[in-house]
Amino acid sequence: MQRPNPAQYYTCMVYLGFLSRKFLLLCCYLFILFLPVSVFAEGSKELTQNGGFRAYLYSSTEVSVSFPFPTRGLMKVYAKVGETIHVASSAQGLGGGTINLRSPDGSTYTSGNSTTVGRINNRTEEIAGPSPNAGGYTAFTRVVAAGQEGVWEIDFIGQSNSAGSENNPTPQSSTTAWTQGPGAFIAAFDVSVRNTGNTAFLTGRVFTNIFSGIIGGFIGGFNGVFHILTKDGYQYVMDNNGQSGNGFSFFSNNKGFRAADGKASYKSFNSVSGDNVHNPTAADTQSDITHKIFFNAPAADLPLTAPAPGNGSTWLMNPPFVPSATDINFKGGEGTDAKTGPTLGGSINFTTTSNGTYTIVIDVNSNGVFTDPADRTLTGQVTLGANSVKWDGLDELGTVVAAGAGAYTANINLSLISAEVHFPFYDVERNINGIKLTRITGANAPDNTVYWDDSDISVTGTPSSPITNLTGQNSLVNGHKWGSPFFADPNSDFGNERSIDTWAYVANAIINTAVTFTIQEADLEVTSLTSDITNGCLNQVITYTTAVKNNGPTDVAGATFSFAFPTELTKVTVTSTETTGTTVISNEQTTATGYTAKLDIPNGGVRTFTITGTVSKLPAATLDVVAAILRPADIADPDATNPNSATPTDPFDECDAQPSGVGCNNIKTASATFFALPKAGDDQVTEKNKTITLTGNGAGSWTQLGTTPAVATIVSPSTASTTVSGLTAEGDYKFIFTNASGCADTLNVSVTSPNLDDSPNVVTPNGDGINDEFIIPGINNYPGSKLSIYNRWGNEVYHSDQYANNWAGAGLSDGTYYYMFTRKDKAGTIKVFKGWIYLKH
Question: What span, in angstroms and rounded, lies between the C-alpha atoms of 47 and 226?
Answer without folding.
Answer: 8
